[in-house]
Specification:
alpha/beta; seven-stranded mixed β-sheet; about 25% strand; Trna Endonuclease, Chain: A, domain 1; about 30% helix
């Protein structure tokens, strides 16, 4: 299993997608846990995570939160994952999903539990974008459950 992980950093201001500090920490926590889970599920592949300003791997010039590389030496095909928080689940941010979906690789949106319907409505508003949607919740044991 190969897992490329940037260092987590402290956030004291709003981030590039304008998440509040606590939401950015939640976002980054879920990204790390998701990447770990994917790395253990696909041990023969490389899993990259892009957290905050620590952008380690791009696909077509874009930096989704998690990228699973199924080809040799990071050559693709890829599966892209984007994690959203309640605050970033909005029309202004949803246009990024269209960009990721247009890259020609599998793309999955990961949203907070109870937000699937809101995510699907935003996808319908984008028109013609077919994206898998998973939900997550953070358990008291600091495990992240993704379904």
């Amino acid at each position: 299993m190969k897992r490329v992980e940037p260092e987590l950093q402290e956030y004291t201001t709003l981030t590039k997608c304008h998440r509040r500090t606590s939401e950015q920490r939640t976002h980054d926590f879920v990204v790390v846990r998701l990447a770990d889970k994917l790395a253990s599920s696909f041990p023969d592949n490389i899993v990259h995570s892009n957290i905050g300003s620590m952008l380690t791997f791009d696909v077509g010039g874009e930096y989704p939160d998690v990228v699973v590389c199924f080809g040799p030496e990071n050559c693709g095909p890829f599966h892209l994952y984007e994690v959203e928080t309640e605050h970033s689940l909005n029309p202004a941010h949803s246009h990024q999903w269209r960009t990721y979906a247009s890259l020609g690789h599998a793309f999955t949106l990961v949203v907070p539990e109870g937000s699937r319907d809101a995510a699907v409505r935003l996808l319908v508003d984008l028109g013609g974008v077919e994206i898998d949607v998973l939900t997550y919740c953070i358990l008291p044991s600091d495990h992240v459950l993704v379904r």
